[in-house]
Description:
The chain is of the alpha/beta class. The protein has one domain. Helix content is 32%, strand content 18%. The strands form three sheets. Strands 7-2-1-8-9-10 form a six-stranded mixed beta sheet, with helices on both faces. Helix 1 (14-21) links the parallel strand 1 and strand 2. The longest helix has 17 residues, at 214-230. This is WbqC-like protein. InterPro entries: WbqC (IPR014985).
Amino acid sequence: MNLAIMQPYFFPYLGYFQLMASVDQWVVFDDIQFVNKGWVNRNRVLHPDVNKEWSYITVPLVGKNRFDRITDISVSDDNWRDKMRGQLSFLKRRAPFFGEAMDFFNVCVDQHEHNLASFLTESLRRAAEILGIAPVFRVQSEAAWDLSAVEHSGQWALEISALLGASRYINPVGGKELFNAAEFEARGIELAFHHPALQPYTQGGRAFVPGLSILDVLMWNGVEGTRKHIQEGTHDFGN
Length: 239
């Protein structure tokens, strides 16, 4: 059984979904401290000005304090969804799959969940279904896992993998230095790292900007084309 563990992100980039597509179980790691100006409640899309690469789309939050966990924070009740639709509307006559991308957007955000962690988890579930990805979702904050044996940050994944009976744990390659391969080997769990494949695609004649939100991939490739991009990416194993 292949397992990955990730924080919930707002319309994350293609590599996030490539990793999700490579596993049997996906753990939403939500009961941890919220990182301000990270990817939990915002992402990047093309900027309307071709001389600028990108701009942020951001979910406004309420009741956020410095040391709050993701599970402690609420999504604002203001009309941010309509504002975001307006922010993306400049692509209506430029992106060939604008309609598909906005249908995807609407399905993912049109929900009445106010808790940030729950909102993001449901959004990711809906996104995965549309994109043809079907891992079993597990949510850290809803589980009664005994993680008292964790001694350093690289062991969260090790202990959760052992509890769920995973034979292989896959992590984004950017976090490789956090892990001790010998600790995984001693527990009979294979350690692997995912390398995202961000192949260029047309963005309306402008210079390609990689690593934008999955919304951008959908704008220019549609659902079927995005599914093909998701199947790319590679793993390496052990050290």
